[in-house]
Structures are given as C-alpha cells and as structure tokens.
Amino acid sequence: MTAVQSPSQPTIAPEAAGDAFGVEAVVAAAFGPGRFAKTAERLREGSRPIAGFVAREGERIVGSVRLWPILIGGTQAAFLGPIAVDAAHRKGGLGARLVQECLAAAEALGLEAVLLVGDTPYFGRFGFARAEGVTLPGPVDPRRLLIKVLTGEAPRGVVTRQTQ
Which of 29, 47, 67, 74 could bridge to 51 as Cys pair (CB 3.0-4.6 Å)? Predict the structure, then answer.
C-alpha cells in the first residue's frame, strides 16, 4: 500500500517497526490507562497485529489503528482497534481514513470479516452492523459489538484471539 496524503491532512502509511513508541503515545493520550481493563485488550494480549497504519504530521505520529488476528467460531477474521487520533486532528476525517486503510488491508489479506467495539452511527458508514450471534471472552455492550462481513455469511460463535 502506498502513503495517502492531501495538502492539509496528515500522511497515512503502514506502521513500521520504529513507530511503536509514537503509537503507544497516541493510544495512551486517547484512551488512558483504563484501556487495559477492557475486554478488547484481552483479544490483543499476547498477539501481534497483522496490519497497522499510522498517520503522520511531519515525523510525529498523530493517529494509529491496527488489525489483530482472531477467530469467530472457526472463521478467520480481524479485530480492529484501537483507533487513536491526536486531539488536534479529531473531527477532520483522519479516523475514517485510518479505518478505510484497515478495511482495505483486511480484504487484501483475504479475511472473511472485521470485528470491533464501537458506535453504529460512526462505523455504520463503513458497512459495520451489529454482530448477532458473536460473543467476546468478557463483558461488552452487545449494541457496540459490530462486524463488517467481507466474504460469505456473517460468522457466529465465540471470539478467540490468535497468537503468532
């Protein structure tokens, strides 16, 4: 994938090995330490992302998002998140651009679905809908568990993480 940029927007590119510190900083600023107590974090523990993207303003990382390998029932899928955008860049469409990059990567990887925990009014425009018949390994508001099916039927079952 190539970098995406418009004159007034940060550049989006695949995450590189040297981006870890900047990614952690933008995620920590966006979500704080409470993120470690969430069920979504349990799906990421002990795993490595299968794809990730960063938004840069110059050399500074101002946004990030990752895809994590999961199984829904026995179906290969990805868990999207966290989507973190620096406070100064919110409301400008940067989060949407990051989501679009992840969805394109998931399709290119041949995954069957992408799952996330989020709000339907925001993620519905990308084709996400309530994940019926899908259960996370911990508490989550079922109204916020959303799925975008990329191929075939919507998977059902318990979500498990995949470690690499």
Answer: 67
Which CATH number characterizes residue 21's domain? 3.40.630.30
In 3D, which of 13, 7, 138, 133 has the Cα closest to residue 65? 13
The answer to whether residues 129 and 147 touch, using CB atoms and an 8 Å cutoff, is: yes
> Is 2 contained in some domain?
no
Q: How far apart (Å, rounded) are the C-alpha atoms in residues 115 and 128? A: 8
Instruction: Name the amino acid, one letter, at 142.
Output: P
Let me know if residue 98 belongs to a domain.
yes
pTM: 0.86
Going by C-alpha positions, the residue among 2, 146, 3, 20 that lies closest to residue 78 is 146
Does residue 26 or residue 29 have the better pLDDT? 26
